[in-house]
Write a structure and sequence with these properties.
By secondary structure, the chain is mostly helical. It has helices at about 5-25, 35-55, 65-90, 95-100, 105-115, 125-140, 150-175, 175-200, 205-210, 210-230, 240-245, 245-260, 265-290. The longest helix is centred in the middle third of the chain and has 27 residues, at about 150-175. The chain is globular. It is found in: Cell membrane.
Length: about 300
């Protein structure tokens, strides 16, 4: 898979997640947030299972114990990020949550330097800031005073960055991106359902009321989109992946207009354009620079 193909796959994952915001918002009308996380990832586990079995049949060898530990760590980061985001929404606005969650485009390159001692291509830094500013404009261009929910959402953004870095490390090292998907989905399903039993009410009627959203989020948003991410990140870096996955904000706004009759302000359209420019810069600028300085490798 080429880097262009990998980034296209990440863009598709962003589009699926953008549409998934609608399912997430309507599911909360009948089902608690933690139960929703547990059930959607239970469905995602079933989606990933046949692909993981196929991958195992064609693998060169078994997964190493250290990689299994890494898969579990990735699942813990994913569950924690999803949980902090959902709980944070109880005491913050959707606008603030959308912008603060999108800060993972800035946290990811920072954590890549701090944790992995890898310096991303210089274009990542202005592109990350551009994408963050675009998300800010797309979410309304205003920001309310910080609340507890805002602080939880900032923690969520950091945890999303940790998850992306874990995917980049363990997917590439193990060569088993679908096995990674299966394990992280299973971890989220078990922890979500266990926490739901402890902290949230549940009923068959609540599950039936949110079943379409659970199935969509489980099959598409959790199942396919995260598998796309895990496969694509074998061929690109975590900071670059964060830029392309930030397109979820753009697609969320687009689907909100098409499916829910929402409107985008003029500032929001500027934000869409800025996000698009950031993605183009990350994809094209290193190639143009490489062509200008032939023979000099450029890592993005």
């Amino acid at each position: 898979m080429t880097r262009v193909q990998a980034n296209t796959l990440l863009l598709l994952a962003g589009a699926i997640w953008g549409a998934g915001f609608i399912a997430q918002s309507t599911a909360m009308e009948t089902l608690g947030p933690i139960w929703f996380i547990g059930l959607r990832f239970a469905v995602a586990t079933l989606v990933a299972l046949p692909f993981a079995l196929w991958e195992k049949a064609h693998a060169d060898g078994p997964i190493r114990p250290n990689d299994i530990g890494g898969f579990i760590l990735t699942g813990l980061a994913l569950f924690a990020a999803a949980a902090f985001q959902q709980v944070g929404l109880l005491t913050t606005t959707v606008t603030n949550s959308g912008f603060l969650t999108g800060l993972y485009v800035v946290f990811t390159p920072i954590l890549t330097v701090l944790l992995l001692r890898r310096r991303p291509h210089w274009v990542i830094w202005p592109a990350a800031l551009l994408a963050s500013f675009g998300i800010f404009l797309l979410s309304g261009g205003t920001f309310a005073a910080l609340t507890l929910g805002d602080m939880l959402t900032i923690v969520c953004a950091v945890l999303w960055s940790v998850q992306m870095i874990c995917v980049g490390v363990f997917s590439g090292r193990s060569g088993r991106p679908v096995a990674l998907s299966l394990v992280q989905f299973s971890v989220c399903a078990v922890l979500g359902c266990a926490a739901g039993l402890l902290f949230e009410p549940i009923s068959l009627a609540a599950i039936k009321g949110a079943l379409p959203e659970i199935l969509y989020a489980g099959f598409f948003s959790s199942g396919l989109a995260f598998i796309f991410q895990n496969v694509a990140q074998r061929y690109t870096t975590a900071p670059q992946a964060a830029i392309f996955l930030s397109s979820e904000a753009l697609f969320a706004a687009l689907f909100g207009v098409l499916l829910l009759g929402e409107t985008i302000s003029p500032a929001g359209y500027v934000g869409c354009a800025i996000i698009f420019v950031a993605m183009l810069a990350v994809e094209l600028l290193p190639v143009l620079l490489r062509e200008r300085h032939q023979g000099t490798p450029v890592e993005v």
